[in-house]
């Protein structure tokens, strides 16, 4: 059976702002108490203009908890597998997510990412590239630094702690979840050129996320 193209117009859209707002309230009212959720630094997110969020990644819950303290809607970059079923595709695309093919150069995902930031949106990325079920912050892919350089947008580091315990068990668990949002990073002064500069900038971002994670 021929698969439906994943990068159609609905996935390039702006999501469903009313649905996003409703679900954000429900998460704060229903989910936050279950996980004794606390967050700090949400006020550090710029109130306007394009922004790139660099978020630690231990569980598929991470984008939910990372977005909860922020007053602006976010556009998550999500693995392409989430868009393969009709129901999942409808849900995540309405929440503003768009697909990326991991492990390969995805020109369409790059174009969509730059478009989101250029329109003044908030792009959420997991620079580690995949989930890690340990207590470390692993090396960041340089793609986030390239996006920051091409768009001129600041990068806001975010650490999420506690979701690792949720990811390792099939039965529901309710560990304490904590989130720390850091100050926006201006990477325009990072020395070097090309891939060398992107790698250095990615490590700077990783170090900030790791520092926040260690404080939680």
Mean pLDDT value: 88
What is the CATH class? Alpha Beta
CATH topology: Glycerol-3-phosphate (1)-acyltransferase
How would you name the CATH homologous superfamily? Glycerol-3-phosphate (1)-acyltransferase
- Write down how many β-strands occur, each being a DSSP E stretch of 2 or more residues: 7
Q: Give the count of helical stretches.
A: 8
Fraction in beta strands: 5-15%
Parts with pLDDT < 50 across at least 5 consecutive residues? 1-13
Describe the protein in words.
It is a single chain. A 7-stranded mixed β-sheet has the order 1-7-6-2-5-3-4. Helix 6 (143-151) crosses helix 8. The longest helix is centred in the C-terminal third of the chain and has 22 residues, at 194-215. The protein is built from 8 helices and 7 strands; from the N terminus they run ααββαβαβαβαβαβα. 36% of the residues are buried. Strand 3 (74-79), helix 4 (86-94) and strand 4 form a beta-alpha-beta unit. 39% of the residues lie in helices and 15% in strands. The protein has 216 residues and is of the alpha/beta class. The chain has one domain (14-215): Glycerol-3-phosphate (1)-acyltransferase. It has helices at residues 9-12, 17-34, 62-67, 86-94, 107-118, 143-151, 163-167, 194-215; strands spanning 38-40, 51-55, 74-79, 98-100, 122-125, 155-161, 178-181.
């Amino acid at each position: 059976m021929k698969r439906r193209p994943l990068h159609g117009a609905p996935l390039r859209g702006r999501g469903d702002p009313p649905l996003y707002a409703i679900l954000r309230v429900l998460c704060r009212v229903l989910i936050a108490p279950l996980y004794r959720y606390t967050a700090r630094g949400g006020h550090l997110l710029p109130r306007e203009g394009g922004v790139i969020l660099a978020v630690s990644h231990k569980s598929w819950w991470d984008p939910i908890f990372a977005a909860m303290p922020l007053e602006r809607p976010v556009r998550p970059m999500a693995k392409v597998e989430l868009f393969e079923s009709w129901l999942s595709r409808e849900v995540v695309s309405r929440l503003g997510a768009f697909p990326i093919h991991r492990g390969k150069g995805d020109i369409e995902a790059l174009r969509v990412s730059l478009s989101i930031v250029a329109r003044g949106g908030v792009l959420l990325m997991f620079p580690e590239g995949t989930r890690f079920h340990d207590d470390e912050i692993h090396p960041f892919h340089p793609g986030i630094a390239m996006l920051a350089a091409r768009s001129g947008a600041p990068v806001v580091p975010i650490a999420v702690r506690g979701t690792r315990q949720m990811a390792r068990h099939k039965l529901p668990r309710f560990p304490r979840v904590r989130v720390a949002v850091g100050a926006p990073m201006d990477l325009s002064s990072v020395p070097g050129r090309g891939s060398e500069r992107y790698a250095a900038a990615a490590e700077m971002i990783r170090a900030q996320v790791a520092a926040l994670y260690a404080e939680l």
